[in-house]
Specification:
Blueprint (H helix, E strand, L loop, with lengths): L1 H23 L10 E8 L4 E9 L4 E10 L5 E11 L5 E13 L2 E8 L8 E8 L2 E15 L4 E15 L11 H6 L4 H8 L5 E10 L1
Antiparallel strand pairs: 1-2, 1-10, 2-3, 3-4, 4-5, 5-8, 6-7, 8-9, 9-10
């Protein structure tokens, strides 16, 4: 809920900034450029995106998006994207995406409990790197703001779903703060409720056109 509340707040701040930029805009009409390179981050998980987009027309763009994931579920992701812009390669847009992710967080295959009567803590056994594969697809809506002849930024919010497979011994994530917050140390449960498997995604990108 904290993540969702922060996301809603960021969404309102973004829309307010869009209105301000449009009100102050004195830039002359911008010549159409077909190529865009962008970098961005997610507001729901620790991640850094780098992407390329090519405009097929003034309303349709296709691209590729790669990312490095940090935080609890470290790994990488690759996505193919397709966008439709309601304006001329700017303004509101909808985006479809699909891709593959691989994550290798530190996990455990078992645990034992303390032996003394007053010690009921879990002590995790067989630490190793997980092998989590995740195929996913999703849809988003967003807004692109052109800041100058070459630079822009955009914001998008959307949902995704996918199918994850875990290694045979990828059982427990340990006592991480996130696991304690959701009340489970099960790898799959934590992945689906606070990691990349969580269905909501929000992103902010800055980019350069040429």
């Amino acid at each position: 809920m904290k993540i969702f509340s922060k996301s809603i707040a960021v969404t309102f701040l973004f829309l307010a900034s869009v209105n301000f930029i449009q009100a102050q805009d004195t830039i002359q009409p911008i010549k159409f450029k077909r190529n865009a390179i962008k970098i961005g981050t997610s507001l729901t998980i620790a991640i850094l995106f780098v992407g390329y987009e090519y405009a097929i027309t003034k309303h349709v763009g296709i691209g590729i998006l790669g990312s490095v994931n940090g935080g609890l579920f470290s790994g990488y992701t690759g996505n193919l994207t397709a966008r439709y812009y309601f304006g001329k390669y700017s303004g509101f847009f909808i985006e479809a995406r699909g891709g593959y992710s691989y994550f290798n967080p530190i996990v455990y295959s078992g645990y034992h409990r303390g032996t003394s009567p007053n010690n009921d803590n879990r002590y995790y056994d067989e630490e190793h790197e997980a092998t989590i594969s995740y195929w996913s697809g999703g849809i988003s809506g967003g807004y692109r703001v052109t800041c100058s002849k070459r630079f822009f930024f955009d914001f998008l919010i959307g949902v995704h779903t996918g199918q994850a497979s875990f290694g045979s011994k990828d059982t427990y994530i340990g006592r991480s703060p996130i696991a304690l917050q959701i009340g489970s140390d099960d790898v799959k449960t934590v992945f689906e409720n606070s990691g990349p498997g969580m269905p909501l995604h929000l992103m902010i990108n800055v980019g350069f056109t040429f």
